[in-house]
Design a protein that fits this description.
The relative contact order is 0.10. This protein has twelve helices and no strands. It has a domain of about 150 residues. By secondary structure, it is mainly α. The two termini are about 45 Å apart. The protein is elongated and about 85 Å long.
Length: about 350
């Protein structure tokens, strides 16, 4: 072979190898990206634990992985199991009630101002007409069942990906220092002296996004628990965990506090149902609109607008993992633009860097 073509042949071989590796790892990319985000955000805690254990990396990584299992995987598994169990039971009860004709409009329906009596009369006529009721039930119940079942499948898939991410995180914790040094060396060869600044921006952004998401989810769960306790909603602990998990999904918390409000209305507690709607709309959902952007912006060097666009655009482009990918990509671009236009490179100092010497 002519020596002139050897560099091109090596480049082609490397490209084909990278493409093959991508297709092999593609089913696990979401879990790996999530594990990387969790590892970066909790890296200072791992270093502290590693110091307490006098450098025993396997023990420190195992303890961190077990903690993630208890904090992330276990609550998600409980919510998934209870959702699947309750959806099946409620569906069977509603179908049996429709077939037996034992459904009656709730008492609070007639007490709605202006339109309450009209709606109550229509519902009663509908319930008295067995044939029309069965047709409506077949029309509405099946799509509702499929929708809830799809939600359960989504949660189940998330549970599987989260479990895999926790497994991957053990190796990221254990070998993270060597991996970080290798990545920084490779980045330095590709983008030059700006690599440390880009690495610092990426780590700060990922931590800011993770702290913002988890901090907002925790705040929403606490506010929701207070509202559930005040209104006397049952299963407060389970609903609080569900609110925490659903807070990671856009428009997720209204599914929880809205369901609690519907239960209160159906139980005849109209006043508490209205209270739950107001509490959820103003306080629980208000936390997401105010606290999340503030926390993410504080933990990142990005401007507030870019953080907001990164979160929204990332979700639209990549799904759930895009919550982390979007701001990170914008952070890299923002750092490079600063370096190219200003001619300055931010040098990581202290524990802000991913790469830390022993």
């Amino acid at each position: 072979m002519d020596k002139r073509f050897e560099p091109h042949a090596r480049l082609a071989a490397i490209i084909f190898l990278l493409i093959g590796c991508f297709f092999v790892l593609r089913p696990f990319l979401a879990a790996m990206l999530f594990a990387a985000c969790v590892g970066i955000s909790s890296w200072p805690l791992y270093l502290l634990l590693l110091d307490r254990l006098k450098g025993r990396r396997n023990w420190a990584a195992a303890i961190m992985t077990l903690s993630l299992l208890l904090v992330i995987v276990l609550p998600l598994a409980l919510v998934t199991y209870n959702l699947a169990d309750n959806v099946s039971r409620i569906y069977e009860q509603l179908r049996a009630a429709l077939e037996a004709g034992g459904l009656h409009p709730p008492a609070w329906l007639a007490s709605i101002p202006v339109v309450g009596e009209t709606i109550d009369g229509y519902v009663r006529r509908l319930l008295d007409d067995r044939e029309e009721l069965l047709n409506l039930g077949k029309t509405m119940l099946e799509p509702a069942r499929h929708f809830l079942a799809s939600g359960g499948i989504l949660l189940g898939t998330g549970l599987a990906q989260t479990s895999l991410a926790v497994f991957v995180s053990f190796f990221l914790y254990r070998d993270g220092q060597q991996l970080s040094r290798a990545l920084m060396t490779g980045a330095g060869r590709i983008i030059g002296d700006s690599a440390p600044g880009v690495g610092l921006t990426i780590s700060r952004t990922v931590r800011g996004v993770m702290y913002g998401l988890l901090g907002t989810a925790l705040a929403q769960a606490l506010v929701a628990v207070v509202g559930f306790l005040i209104a006397g909603v049952p299963a407060v602990a389970l609903l609080g965990v569900a609110t925490f998990i659903f807070s990671l999904i856009p428009v997720g918390p209204p599914l929880i506090w809205g369901g609690a409000a519907i239960w209160l209305f159906s139980d005849g507690q109209t006043g508490w149902g209205i209270f739950m709607l107001v509490w959820g709309a103003l306080l629980i959902s208000g936390v997401d609109n105010v606290v999340k952007p503030m926390l993410i912006s504080r933990g990142s060097s990005l401007p507030f607008l870019l953080v907001l666009l990164g979160v929204l655009g990332g979700v639209l482009a990549f799904g759930f993992v895009g919550i982390f990918i979007g701001p990170t990509l914008l952070a890299v671009l923002y750092s490079l633009l600063q370096t190219w236009t200003v001619g300055e490179t931010t040098v990581p100092q202290g524990k802000d860097t991913i790469t830390l010497k022993k």
